[in-house]
């Protein structure tokens, strides 16, 4: 696994903390992602199965999964985001410390607040699937190998739905960053069978600035 300086990780953390503090959360969607709704069944998760959402924020996808009868576990850097998440759900969580992390839990939901690289397999517990809508594309290029390696390690290479964006990075910098087919294969082809399930052009462009494609991948363990 690649290693990064603590300074680099801290800079990345402060970037996202500031986004939440000032309400600059254009990446947050007010409804469940249409790709999730349309394609989640491809993961073959039984009712009551446990789904991991890395860098979950206060995503409505989490509520959709709960309403479908699944258990959810998330990791998120911003405590503000998770407080808003539980407020939106109308649920009062139990809060405890787990090493460097803060755990927010309620019926069928566990969220670990802190650095995702502090989430171990033992802390996370067994998961049946991963849904990555906003994590890989939020990572700068020099962190993506560390992230994907860590994710596979802590989830025991659980099957995964992965949403990525593809656009000309010279016209606009991320996040979300452009992560195309070649890079998805670079990170995951050694452990997963990869299937590009569906793609769509983003109406009005990404952030209203640049033409982009949103693509959903199904990653199934060999």
Helices and strands, with pairings:
Elements (H helix, E strand, L loop, with lengths): L5 H16 L12 H6 L10 E5 L5 H8 L3 E6 L2 H11 L4 E5 L2 E6 L2 E5 L7 H4 L4 E4 L8 H15 L4 E7 L14 H8 L3 E10 L11 E9 L1
Parallel strand pairs: 1-2, 1-6, 2-5, 6-7
Antiparallel strand pairs: 3-4, 4-5, 7-9, 8-9
Structure description:
The structure is a single chain. The protein is of the alpha/beta class. The protein has a single domain, classed as Vaccinia Virus protein VP39 (Rossmann fold), CATH 3.40.50.150. It has 7 helices and 9 strands, in the order H-H-E-H-E-H-E-E-E-H-E-H-E-H-E-E. The chain has helices spanning 6-21, 34-39, 60-67, 79-89, 121-124, 141-155, 181-188, and strands at 50-54, 71-76, 94-98, 101-106, 109-113, 129-132, 160-166, 192-201, 213-221. Strands 3-4-5-2-1-6-7-9-8 form a 9-stranded mixed sheet. A hairpin with a 2-residue loop joins strand 4 and strand 5 (109-113). The longest helix is centred in the N-terminal third of the chain and has 16 residues, at 6-21. The model is unreliable at 1-8 and 24-28 (pLDDT under 50).
């Amino acid at each position: 696994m690649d290693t990064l300086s603590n300074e680099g990780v801290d800079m990345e953390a402060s970037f996202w903390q500031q986004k939440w503090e000032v309400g600059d959360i254009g990446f947050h969607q007010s409804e469940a992602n249409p790709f999730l709704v349309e394609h989640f069944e491809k993961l073959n998760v039984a009712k009551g199965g446990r789904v991991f959402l890395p860098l979950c924020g206060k995503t409505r996808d989490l509520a959709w999964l709960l309403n479908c009868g699944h258990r959810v576990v998330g990791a998120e850097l911003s405590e503000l985001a998770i407080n808003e998440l539980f407020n939106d759900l109308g649920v009062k969580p139990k809060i405890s410390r787990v090493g460097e992390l803060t755990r927010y839990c309620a019926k069928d939901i566990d969220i670990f607040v802190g650095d995702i690289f502090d989430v171990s397999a033992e802390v996370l517990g067994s998961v049946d699937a991963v849904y990555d809508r906003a994590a890989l594309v939020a990572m700068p290029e020099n962190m993506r190998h560390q992230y994907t390696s860590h994710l596979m390690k802590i989830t025991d290479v659980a099957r995964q739905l992965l949403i990525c964006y593809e656009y000309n990075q010279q016209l606009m910098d991320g996040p979300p960053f452009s992560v195309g087919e070649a890079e998805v294969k670079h990170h995951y082809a050694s452990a997963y069978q990869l299937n590009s399930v569906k793609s769509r052009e983003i109406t009005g462009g990404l952030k209203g600035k640049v033409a982009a494609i949103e693509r959903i991948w199904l990653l199934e363990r060999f």
